[in-house]
Amino acid sequence: MGTSVIIAENLTKSYRRVKTGSKKASALSAFFSKNVESFKALDNLNFEVGQGEILGLIGGNGAGKTTLLKLMARITQPSAGRLGIKGRLSALLEVGTGFHPDLTGRENILLNGSLLGMSRQEILRKMDQIIDFSGIEAFIDTQVKNYSSGMFVRLGFSVSAHLDADILLLDEVMAVGDAAFQHKSLEKVEALVADGKTVIVASHAMNALRSLCPQTLVLQRGCLIAKTDTATAINHYLDTIATEKNYAFHGPWSSHFTLQKIRINEVAIEEGASVSPLSAIQISLSLSHQSREAFRITLSLYFDGIRCFTMHDVPFQASSSTHITSEFIIPACTLRPGKWVIAVGGHNENMSQWFWNDQCAVLEVEEKYGPGLEKIKN
């Protein structure tokens, strides 16, 4: 590793929150309430990132990835410890971040460049490259509040990748946009690293991390549990999902539904048994709920961070019981061997109410092949 351009020493970020089970309060009254407690979004992180390094960043929901990126981008300050950054830094953290909605795409390019400390002449020299790479030439003089999320990401990535930043932070950018733009983005990131730029990529798209990042940081509940080669890091990440069994939902209906148990072929998933890809797989979800409205339950399976398919249990219907069991059958020879992440959710008929958790548990499919089938060697 060359000269370090990011150094974290005992880096900690704390926030205040209302204690679990306490009544809701206004932001001001909650701040002074005895029911408020401090929690560490990041806890004593130590690592270095070298010049010209491309580093992955993964972790489950609530692991601290976004908090770490916001600290690096100087959006927020550490509560304790030190975070040293050398050079200009550009960040693409969320759709629309860094864009003024009432300005056009062209005007926002000028704004972003000036925030990086570039002169107007420097920005104008790169303007045509940025617009051409984004592929939204026809809309570049339209106010960005009228852009789709895909257009935001295209322009945001193009701005970040072409302006003269020494360090580039990317959060879930590789999972957005069509396949052609994703491929073009990967090539651009590789070119930036070859030019001595430092890139940090936070993503659940495991295939993108494998192809881009030699090393990856793994966060779990605010702690750095590994900085290692990406293949090992991904296994660490999947293991954290498997062991934590975080069934908490988010969304407007999150307080109305509770996932109590996941069973695989009538065996609790906590027992950790793997399944054969050559046999049908039954997944049973036990939930309690408080909804009087008709709803249906959704099951999705992810492989390498990519949602491969989604199933719904029944047509929309109301339930007179507060406890339900939804069952899904996956046909034999459907799932390839490896670790699949189970996502669970549900919604009402017009989608105005919904709940979701995309990292409930991990289903491990055995490395087993039938007659005439064999593992494809890399």
Question: Any overview of this molecule?
Answer:
Strand 13 and strand 14 form a beta hairpin. The chain is 24% helix and 35% strand. It is globular. Helix 3 packs across helix 4 and helix 4 packs across helix 5. The protein is built from eight helices and 17 strands.
Short description:
The protein is of the alpha+beta class and 378 residues long.
Q: How would you spell out the order of helices and strands?
A: EHEEHEEHHHEHEHEEHEEEEEEEE
Q: List low-confidence stretches.
A: none
Q: Approximately how much beta-strand content do the residues carry?
A: 35-45%
Q: For the largest beta sheet, what order do the strands appear in spatially?
A: 5-6-7-3-8-9
Total of DSSP H or I helical runs spanning 4+ residues: 8
Q: Calculate the terminal CA-CA distance, rounded to whole Å.
A: 28 Å
The shape, in one word, is globular
Mean pLDDT: 86
Question: Which sheet architecture does the biggest sheet show?
Answer: 6 strands, mixed
Helical fraction: 10-25%
Which radius of gyration do the C-alpha atoms yield? 23 Å
Number of strands: 17
Structural class estimated from helices and strands: alpha+beta
Keywords:
378 residues; alpha+beta; four-stranded antiparallel sheet; 8 helices; 17 strands
What is this structure's SSE topology?
Blueprint: E1 4-18, H1 27-32, E2 36-50, E3 54-59, H2 65-72, E4 80-85, E5 89-92, H3 105-115, H4 120-134, H5 149-162, E6 167-171, H6 179-194, E7 198-202, H7 206-212, E8 215-220, E9 223-229, H8 230-244, E10 257-264, E11 267-268, E12 281-289, E13 296-303, E14 306-312, E15 323-330, E16 338-347, E17 354-365
Parallel strand pairs: 3-7, 3-8, 5-6, 6-7
Antiparallel strand pairs: 1-2, 1-4, 8-9, 10-11, 10-12, 12-15, 13-14, 13-16, 16-17
